[in-house]
C-alpha cells in the first residue's frame, strides 16, 4: 500500500510548553487512524503540528516528499486540519469555499444547498462543524486531520459524517488522522487506533476487525 | 504687524485658568486635579527646556547638533509608539520596527522636503529642519501607533479565523488582507480628517502660529498646505511600512501565526 503521510520521531514543540509524545508512524492511502487519550495530553497540539500550524521537531513526509519541499500554505492545503470549533471570517457561508461543495456531499451530511447562502453567525454549531469539514474537503487535501469532528453532532449526523469520510478516504486514496473519544466510534471508523499514554503513543490492540474490512 | 512679545506675567495669567480648573475639580471631587497640575508643570518645564535647547541649536547650526537632536526626537517617538499599543511586538524586533518605520517615513520626508521644497541654506538649517521633523514625527508616530495597535489586537482577537484560513492553505498575506486593510484605514483616519477639516472647522496649529507671528495669511496657508501633504506622506509611508512588516513578523518562515512574538499573555493559555 502506498504511504501517504509519514512521521519520524515527530513531536509538537511550542515555546514554554512541554512537547507532545514523540511519534513515528506511517499512514497509508485509504486508511483512517484514530487517536485518543485523556484531555490535555496534547492531541490537538499534535494535529496542529502535523498540519504545520505549530512548530515541531522530527521529520514529516507527504507522498514521500519532505515537508520542507512544500511551502507552509502548500503543506497545509494538502494536510488539512479541521478544528473542533470552526472559525468563519466572511458573512456568507458559501464565501468560505474554494469550490462550492456539490449538492450530493451536502445531502450526505443532511444539509440543504440553501445553507451556503446563509449568514455563518446564524448557523448552529453542528451545522458549522459539518460545513467546516466540507470546506476543507473542497481544497482536495491528501490528508485530513480531524479534531473531534462529531463533538457537537447528534448520533444520526455523526454517523452520516463518519460514512462520508470513510467513502471519501477510499475514493480518493487519501488518509485520515481522527481524534476521537468514543470507543464505539473508534470501532466504526478506524483501521488502526492509537492512544496517548504517559507521553508516548501506543497501539490499541483491536479484538474486532475494522469497519472497512467487513465491507 | 509686529509680534507681541509675551512676558512671564502673561504666562502666569494663563496659568490661572488651569489652577481654576484644578480648583473646580477638587470641589466636585472629579479626581483629575493632580494629573492636571502635573501635566501643567510638565508643559512649562518641557517647553522651557526645549526652548533653551533650540536657542543653543540655532546659535550653533552644525549638522552634528541637528542630527543629535533628531536622534533624541526619534528615540522619544519610538518609545511613545510602543507605549501606545496593547500588544506590542516583543524584544529588539519591536523597537526596531517602531524606530524603522518612524525613521524611514519622517526622516525620509523631512530630507526630501528640505532638498526639494523648502531648500534652506544650509539644508539642515535648524529653524526649518527641527520643527519640520517634529511635526512629521509627531503625526507619523500617531499613525504608526494606531495602525500597529489595530493590527496586533485584531490578530489576537481573530486568531481562530486567521488559523482557519491558514489551515485551508491560504498564504499569510491572504489570511491577513482584511486586518491589514482595516489597520491602514485606522492609521490614516486622523490625517484624512485633519485635511478635510482644515480651515473650515479648525485653523491648523502651524498656520495659526505663523499668522500670530505676523506672516501674511496667504503665505501661512501655502506653508500649511505643503506641511499637510508632507504629514500625509509621512503618516502613510510610516503606517504602511509598519503594518506590512508588523504583519509579516506575526508569521514565521513556514507562515505559521506566532502570537507569542507579541508582548502579552499568550492567549492560548
Structure commentary:
The complex is a heterodimer of chains A (215) and B (269). Chain A contains 6 helices and 10 strands; from the N terminus they run E-E-E-H-E-E-H-E-H-H-E-H-E-H-E-E. Chain A has 215 residues and is of the alpha/beta class. In chain A, the strands form 2 sheets. Chain A has a 6-stranded mixed β-sheet with strand order 6-7-8-3-9-10, sandwiched between helices. In chain A, strands 2-1-4-5 form a 4-stranded antiparallel β-sheet, with helices on one face. Helices cover 27% and strands 26% of the residues of chain A. Chain B is globular and about 70 Å long. Chain B has 2 domains: 1-60, no CATH class; 62-261, no CATH class. With 269 residues, chain B is mainly α. The A-B interface holds A 14-16, 51-55, 71-78, 80-83, 85-89, 98, 132, 135-136, 139 and B 158, 160-161, 163-172, 178, 252-257, 260, 266.
In short, what is this structure?
Chain A is built from 6 helices and 10 strands. The C terminus of chain A is likely disordered.
Please supply descriptive tags for the structure shown above.
heterodimer, A: 215 residues, alpha/beta, six-stranded mixed beta sheet, four-stranded antiparallel beta sheet, 10 strands, B: 269 residues, mainly alpha, 2 domains, disordered C terminus
Amino acid at each position: 500500500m502506498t504511504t501517504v503521510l509519514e512521521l519520524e520521531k515527530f513531536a509538537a514543540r511550542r515555546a514554554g510548553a512541554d512537547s507532545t509524545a514523540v511519534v513515528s508512524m506511517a499512514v497509508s492511502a485509504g486508511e483512517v487512524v484514530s487517536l485518543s487519550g485523556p484531555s490535555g495530553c496534547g492531541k490537538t497540539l499534535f494535529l496542529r503540528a502535523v498540519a504545520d500550524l505549530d512548530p515541531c521537531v522530527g521529520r514529516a513526509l507527504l507522498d514521500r516528499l519532505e515537508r520542507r519541499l512544500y511551502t507552509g500554505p502548500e503543506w497545509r492545503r494538502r494536510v488539512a486540519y479541521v478544528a473542533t470549533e470552526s472559525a468563519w471570517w466572511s458573512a456568507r457561508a458559501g464565501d468560505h469555499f474554494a469550490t462550492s461543495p456539490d449538492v450530493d456531499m451536502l445531502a450526505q451530511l443532511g444539509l440543504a444547498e440553501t445553507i451556503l447562502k446563509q449568514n455563518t453567525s446564524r448557523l448552529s454549531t453542528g451545522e458549522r462543524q459539518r460545513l467546516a469539514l466540507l470546506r476543507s474537503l473542497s481544497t482536495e487535501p491528501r490528508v485530513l486531520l480531524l479534531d473531534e469532528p462529531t463533538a457537537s453532532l447528534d448520533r444520526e449526523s455523526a454517523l452520516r459524517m463518519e460514512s462520508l469520510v470513510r467513502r471519501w478516504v477510499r475514493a480518493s486514496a487519501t488518509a485520515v488522522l481522527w481524534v476521537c473519544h468514543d470507543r464505539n466510534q473508534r470501532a466504526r471508523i478506524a483501521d488502526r487506533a492509537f492512544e496517548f499514554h504517559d507521553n508516548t503513543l501506543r497501539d490499541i490492540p483491536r479484538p474486532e476487525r475494522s469497519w472497512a474490512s467487513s465491507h | 504687524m509686529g509680534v507681541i512679545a509675551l512676558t512671564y506675567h502673561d504666562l502666569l495669567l494663563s496659568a490661572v485658568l488651569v489652577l481654576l480648573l484644578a480648583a473646580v475639580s477638587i470641589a466636585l471631587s472629579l479626581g483629575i486635579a493632580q494629573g492636571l497640575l502635573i501635566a501643567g508643570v510638565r508643559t512649562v518645564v518641557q517647553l522651557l527646556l526645549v526652548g533653551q535647547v533650540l536657542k543653543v541649536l540655532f546659535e550653533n547650526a552644525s549638522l552634528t547638533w541637528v542630527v543629535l537632536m533628531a536622534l533624541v526626537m526619534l528615540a522619544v517617538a519610538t518609545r511613545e509608539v510602543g507605549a501606545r499599543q496593547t500588544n506590542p511586538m516583543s524584544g529588539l524586533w519591536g523597537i526596531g520596527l517602531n524606530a524603522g518605520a518612524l525613521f524611514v517615513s519622517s526622516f525620509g520626508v523631512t530630507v526630501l522636503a528640505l532638498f526639494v521644497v523648502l531648500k534652506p541654506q544650509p539644508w539642515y538649517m535648524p529653524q526649518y529642519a527641527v520643527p519640520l521633523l517634529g511635526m512629521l514625527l509627531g503625526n507619523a508616530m500617531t499613525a504608526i501607533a494606531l495602525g500597529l495597535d489595530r493590527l496586533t489586537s485584531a490578530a489576537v482577537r481573530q486568531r481562530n479565523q486567521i488559523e482557519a484560513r491558514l489551515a485551508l492553505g491560504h498564504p499569510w498575506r491572504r489570511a491577513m488582507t482584511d486586518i491589514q486593510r482595516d489597520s491602514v484605514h485606522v492609521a490614516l483616519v486622523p490625517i484624512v480628517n485633519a485635511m478635510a477639516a482644515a480651515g473650515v472647522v479648525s485653523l491648523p496649529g502651524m498656520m495659526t502660529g505663523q499668522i500670530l507671528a505676523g506672516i501674511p495669511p496667504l503665505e501661512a496657508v501655502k506653508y500649511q498646505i505643503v506641511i499637510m501633504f508632507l504629514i500625509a506622506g509621512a503618516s502613510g509611508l510610516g503606517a504602511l511600512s509598519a503594518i506590512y512588516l508588523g504583519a509579516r513578523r506575526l508569521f514565521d518562515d513556514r507562515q505559521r501565526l506566532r502570537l507569542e512574538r507579541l508582548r502579552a499573555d499568550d492567549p492560548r493559555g
